[in-house]
Give the backbone structure.
Amino acid sequence: MNRYTRYRNALQTILTKEILRFSRIWIQTVLPPAITTTLYFIIFGNLIGQRIGEMDGVRYIDFIVPGLILMAVITNSYSNVVSSFFSSKYQRHVEELLISPVPNWVILAGYVGGGVARGVVVGICVTLVSMFFTDLQVQSYVWTLAVFVLTSILFALGGFINAVYARSFDDISIVPTFILTPLTYLGGVFYSIQMLPELWQKISLANPVLYMVNAFRFGLLGVTDIPILVALGIILLFIVALTGFSLYLLKHGVGTKS
Amino acid sequence: MLALAIRNLHKTYKNGFRALEGIDLEVEQGDFFALLGPNGAGKSTAIGIISSLVNKSEGKVSVFGYDLDTDPEAVKSCIGLVPQEFNFNQWEPVAEIVVNQAGYYGIPRREAWARAEQSLRQLDLWDKRKDQALSLSGGMKRRLMIARALVHRPRLLILDEPTAGVDIEIRRSMWSFITGINQQGTTIILTTHYLEEAENLCRHIAIINQGKIAEHTSMSRLLHRLHTQTFVLNLKDSLESVPELAGYRVALVDANTIEVSVDREQSINGMFRVLSKCGIEVASMRNKQNRLEQMFIDMVDASRKRVQG
């Protein structure tokens, strides 16, 4: 068996394991985001949204759909990898991988792939829920899918790094609570940054989530606050940086080896 | 060919603790090798380095000629590890744990299932294949770790206290299973605190103490160095006083039991001749203390005194 067939089989094993992990507990992993998003649509879309009117030339409920889908993708991709990799460290079954001839990039790809799978499944569920409230007319399927997948890759990588450094269960909730949630809520999910004073518009540009939400909104609705290629460039830049850093951590055994 | 060669291996942890201070070790292919030492001696650190769970500070490790630094994948492919503590996902079904491990070694899913079935049947766990690992008894969990370690058919099997906390019946069945694996050609390195286990199973031995190799030799050569052995003899008829056995030290334990010390220069045949002359009939006999245990304690004490002195 050649080296690449071995790698493919190892990757398939990690991916299958990761997908089975969140599928077995779908009531905890897939259902809650669908329920939360339904509530967002009812409260912000239907009840409050009718009084807001239009934003960036589209109905408010249509405006928030891309952000809400992406918010679910971000949260789930991140939390899948952070909880899975941390628990494998905590229960020490990460050692099964560390003693095996699996290259670090395969380990990373397997965990990130699991995060992306959950992000995609949850994203599809939320999209289906949104169809009960809006009439989605996708402007660019390619762009929408690309941003959808790239965003989940990026946040799955973020979850992986968080898990590598985490030493307790508290450590895996600090980043989502104090960094990820504020960035997502301030990333233009519920408003256009054009509504903000100039200073806050500039500050908002430092928020990477803003680029993803806008790029995704462009794919779905054809409207954006940010030049679209800049958004794509920033997403790709973050992916490359986080991948490099994750591989560095694995190579040096940070958080996994003594 | 050497299954394992270690040269000048050092490990200093971040807190400054020096777990290994330049150990050299060689294990021949096909050997059954005991790596012994008191708690904290450095055994688990050495095993951790060999199996890529611990980063070494200095030194060279090669497994079947593959260098750990330059060809880690080849080294890892040769090794199967049964660690001291349970390190599988307790929530996963038993069979999946073994199948996944095979997958990490690049074995295709279908073949992985066939191998998992074989391993689990050999270790009497096939009936438990669908159960969560959490529900297994301690002995079953130990056997599961052996099944998992064997699924990729390693050439070198490292057993880090595989029988700790296991009852004697299961321990004996594990001994027999592991011996069978060794007879089929797999090199085995065993660490254990049950010294009779090491004495019965292993052909070569290294004793590690305070991060250094205190002894590295064959089991028979080591045991030959034992100065005195004390035997406990159960007698057919009771005695009222300590018998006089010319040339042997004797102690009366109770009316039907005596202890006889036999020096290295003496023989057990000689002891029986003297016993016969005195008209003492022996019903059964055993070593008072495990031979290796006696040597081990002496050696570790001597090594400790050297360091303190």
